[in-house]
Amino acid sequence: MADIATVDQLDARGKRVLVRVDFNVPVADGVCSDDTRIRAALPTIEKLIDEGARVILMSHLGRPSGEGFEEKFTLRPAALRLSELLGRPVAFASDTVGPDAQAKAAALQDGQVLVLENLRFDKREKKNDPEFCQELAKLGEAYVNDAFGTAHRAHASTAGVAALLPAYAGYLMQNEVATLTGMLDEPRRPFVAILGGSKVSDKIKVIDALMDKCDTLIIGGGMCFTFLLAQGKQVGTSLKEEDWVERAAAMLRKAEERGVKLLLPVDVVCADKFAEDANTKTVSVDDVPADMMGLDVGPETAKLYAQAISQAATVFWNGPMGVFEMEAFAAGTKAVAEAVAENQLGDTIIGGGDSVAAVNKFDLADRMTFISTGGGASMELVQGEALPGVEALKR
Ligand SMILES: Nc1ncnc2c1ncn2[C@@H]1O[C@H](COP(=O)(O)OP(=O)(O)O)[C@@H](O)[C@H]1O
Ligand SMILES: O=C(OP(=O)(O)O)[C@H](O)COP(=O)(O)O
């Protein structure tokens, strides 16, 4: 991030500072039900408050139509939670760049905070519309991007507006990028990467990129069945992507050429249907019944994976090992989560998405070195893709 100015370089006193945060949080019955992303943005917000800035926060929440206000996507619950976390009042504008936002931004005093309504209520946000960028820029005198979770989007608030105001990276943005690129550039070895989730097609670029960096690659989740097919095994009715078998086979060859140890399941928990109350059977990967589907890695596999994880100096994990949302198929993911948590000597990095949900579900979050707030963003970064939200901050 050498070519990016950071919030520490911003003389914020008395300035209206427009801060892009990722407050895309889950909301249930009008209440924010997981404030992880809000907490993650606090260091930047608190620093600006302490310095006497007039803080204007902007974010999206969910994927509204872009045709105006929709109650279920309002940012009000996030603003309320922020106010509780800060222990001070937070103003809320019922629009994003309209009269209420303009008036409330102008009325801010030093050290006060305003949250704007959901950026995506205006369809110009996702289009990175130049006029919308201008209207956003008019609200502030400096711009800070702390929305790592949305850094892979080239939208008005993450990209366009950065060219119109002095632009800085917030602490979360810095920390996320430094941790993830540091892991890729200079991992302590052995470096064990664990990839799961549903599809090979979604993760192929990440698998490919990590293959160039890691010493051991562990594969689980629905996507392992496409790899098992590539090894000539029968996988019954398990999730499989026939079109990706050849790519999976190429990955197996690449691992061999590179000397990367690629670990695939040796046993799986099979079910007769995709349901919590399914009849289940744990079998060797050589004996998957034709009429059953694998929904979790088996206990022998979990042991094998845990052992590799225990020896790692760096662990990167993205994607569950099985259908962990259902109790009957959560054991593999839980075993991996516990093994990562138990490795207290290594750097353990959780790469967003469902693996974060799993770590939280098993109450292991505080035992990980780093948990990314971005699913898509961390995957794109690991894949070696430039993040528009980061690029836009470059001088
Ligand atoms: N064996 C499996 N068969 C079907 N779905 C699976 C299997 N293992 C994991 N999954 C599902 O994959 C989903 C997560 O996949 P994905 O969205 O690719 O991961 P992430 O969000 O971590 O990137 C979870 O909802 C989980 O239930
Ligand atoms: O939650 C987000 O991404 P993630 O689910 O990939 O972590 C970000 O807020 C981006 O949201 P978007 O995918 O609707 O652009």
Summarize the structure.
This is Phosphoglycerate kinase. The protein folds into 2 domains: 170 residues, 3-Layer(aba) Sandwich (Rossmann fold), CATH 3.40.50.1260; 196 residues, Rossmann fold (3-Layer(aba) Sandwich).
Class from helix and strand fractions: alpha/beta
Q: Number of helical segments?
A: 13
Overall shape: it is elongated
What would you say the CATH architecture of the largest domain is? 3-Layer(aba) Sandwich
CATH superfamily of the largest domain: Phosphoglycerate kinase, N-terminal domain
CATH topology of the largest domain: Rossmann fold
Distance N terminus to C terminus? Answer: 11 Å
Topology overview:
Blueprint: E1 16-20, E2 27-28, E3 31-32, H1 36-50, E4 54-58, H2 76-86, E5 91-92, H3 99-107, E6 113-115, H4 130-137, E7 142-145, E8 167-169, H5 171-185, E9 191-195, H6 200-211, E10 216-219, H7 224-230, H8 245-258, E11 261-263, E12 267-271, E13 280-284, E14 293-297, H9 299-310, E15 314-318, H10 331-342, E16 347-350, H11 354-361, E17 370-371, H12 376-382, H13 388-391
Parallel strand pairs: 1-4, 1-7, 4-6, 5-6, 7-8, 9-10, 9-15, 10-11, 15-16, 16-17
Antiparallel strand pairs: 2-3, 12-13, 12-14
Helix pairs in contact: 1-2, 6-8, 7-8, 9-10
Description:
The chain is of the alpha/beta class. The chain has 2 domains: 7-176, Phosphoglycerate kinase, N-terminal domain (Rossmann fold, 3-Layer(aba) Sandwich), CATH 3.40.50.1260; 187-382, Phosphoglycerate kinase, N-terminal domain (Rossmann fold), CATH 3.40.50.1260. 34% of the residues lie in helices and 16% in strands. It is built from 13 helices and 17 strands. The chain has helices at residues 36-50, 76-86, 99-107, 130-137, 171-185, 200-211, 224-230, 245-258, 299-310, 331-342, 354-361, 376-382, 388-391, and strands at residues 16-20, 27-28, 31-32, 54-58, 91-92, 113-115, 142-145, 167-169, 191-195, 216-219, 261-263, 267-271, 280-284, 293-297, 314-318, 347-350, 370-371. Strands 5-6-4-1-7-8 form a 6-stranded parallel β-sheet, sandwiched between helices. A 6-stranded parallel β-sheet has the order 11-10-9-15-16-17, sandwiched between helices. A 3-stranded antiparallel β-sheet has the order 13-12-14. Strand 15 (314-318), helix 10 (331-342) and strand 16 (347-350) form a beta-alpha-beta unit. Helix 6 (200-211) runs parallel beside helix 8. The longest helix has 15 residues, at 36-50. The model has no long low-confidence stretch (mean pLDDT 97). Bound molecules: adenosine-5'-diphosphate (ADP) and 1,3-bisphosphoglyceric acid. Adenosine-5'-diphosphate is lined by residues 197-199, 202, 221-222, 239, 294-295, 318-320, 322-323, 325, 353-355, 375.
